[in-house]
Specification:
The chain is an alpha+beta fold. Helices cover about 35% and strands about 15% of the residues. It is built from twelve helices and twelve strands. Strands 1, 2, 3, 4, 5 and 6 form a six-stranded mixed β-sheet that branches. A four-stranded antiparallel β-sheet has the order 7-10-11-12.
Length: about 375
């Protein structure tokens, strides 16, 4: 037990002076001062080693912290976080591990994810509201790179010169690799086509592209009277390239979940922090951020690999010239004019997207039923 609260220092001095006398009974002195023998011998030892200064209360803080993170490591974590404020402990841990392999991180130990979280917390670098929004969700992913690309426009924003920027983005479903991040002046079909040609030449072509139902690739609210599916001229061009364009369910943006997630990351990591003078300046910043997203930023959904570690270019090479499609000899070929073809004195609607091109009627097992194809795309089935 300790000394009584009253005149603690004077009691210690008195006890130690008495105990230092030759022939003193230390056990009896401890009993008289109402302290344990262990406490008494502790103060005697301190008095012999340091004199009166040894009787002053010392800090209870340990002299050695085997698990304490060094200030240099803590500064390393903080600097990484400040470079990319949206990156959490998991991504930072992966980045530090990569830096360790590359020789950029020279400390012997790498802080674990929990330690990084504590470092961020005590330095005020965690928004408490962000954690509440995090939740697990089920992921669906295509099996191979270029099996499916997701394409969409990010909501437009205004540049400092007053013009609008419409970011066109394309994401590979399998690897999360950003195929395209283009600062566009509009959302017109020719703009999209030129952007696609650019990435087709660089990365090859996918097997499918997923978009929503809006323009310029979709025809929401523009179904013809017969109830057949409508096509855009952009989709006609993709059919000629043997790239299937599929559309998500109307009013269900989660169908393009990876594009939605990419847009959120783009906004949080770049658009919320910078303004751009014009489209050229915006594209420069897009290019820099895109390189970081594809080549440096670890992705939790990829087991903290980067997209470039998984993505490979497509084996489908973009043809600079589209050759005429070769149909079956038994097919009945008709040219589309004003969205209509004629067969057996009947006008059959196929859509204005195919004006000037040829489609074919193909007999089925039922002699009265025909299928209408453009290239390898089934447009509709009719009964004559």
């Amino acid at each position: 037990m300790p000394f009584t609260a009253q005149t603690i220092m004077s009691q210690r001095i008195e006890f130690c002076l008495l105990a230092s006398k030759p022939g003193s009974n230390k056990s009896d002195l401890c009993r008289r001062h109402k302290i344990t023998r262990r406490t008494g011998y502790k103060w005697i030892k301190r008095y012999r080693e340091k004199g009166l200064t040894g009787l002053v209360d010392q800090s209870r803080r340990p002299h050695h912290f085997p698990n304490q993170t060094s200030s240099d490591i803590e500064r390393y974590v903080i600097n990484l976080r400040k470079e990319d404020p949206e990156w959490g402990s998991k991504k930072l841990h992966k980045l530090i591990s990569n830096d360790k392999k590359a020789g950029k991180y020279t400390h012997e130990t790498i802080p674990c994810k929990e330690t990084i979280t504590r470092i961020l917390g005590r330095n005020g670098l965690i928004d408490p509201n962000r954690s509440k929004l995090s939740c697990d969700f089920e992921r669906f992913v295509r099996q191979y790179p270029n099996e499916l690309w997701q394409m969409d426009y990010k909501g437009w924003f205004r540049l400092l010169n007053g013009q609008q920027c419409h970011p066109l983005t394309i994401t590979d479903d399998n690897s999360r690799f950003n195929i395209c991040l283009e600062s566009c002046k509009n959302q017109q079909e020719e703009t999209v086509k030129q952007a696609l040609i650019k990435v087709f030449r660089k990365y090859g072509m996918p097997y499918m592209i997923l978009t929503d139902n809006s323009g310029p690739w979709g025809v929401a609210g523009n179904e013809p009277a017969e109830g057949i599916r409508s096509y855009t001229t952009l989709e006609r061009w993709l059919i000629q390239l043997n790239v299937k364009l599929i559309h998500g369910r109307p009013y269900h943006p989660q169908t393009q979940g990876k594009e939605e997630r990419f847009h959120k990351t783009l906004k949080q990591e770049l658009l919320d922090h910078e303004q751009f003078r014009d489209h050229e300046h915006c594209q420069e910043r897009f290019n820099v951020w895109r390189e970081k997203y594809n080549n440096i930023r670890p992705h939790e959904s990829l087991d903290f690999k980067t997209p470039v570690e998984i993505y490979i270019p497509s084996i489908k090479i973009y043809p600079e010239k589209i050759e005429p499609y070769v149909y079956n000899m038994s097919d009945i070929k008709r040219k589309v004019d004003k969205g209509i073809i004629h067969y057996e004195n009947k006008a059959i609607r196929v859509g204005h997207a195919f004006d000037g091109d040829y489609v074919v009627l193909r007999k089925t097992r039922n002699d009265d039923v025909f299928e209408i194809f453009f290239c390898n795309q089934l447009l509709r089935t009719i009964t004559l």
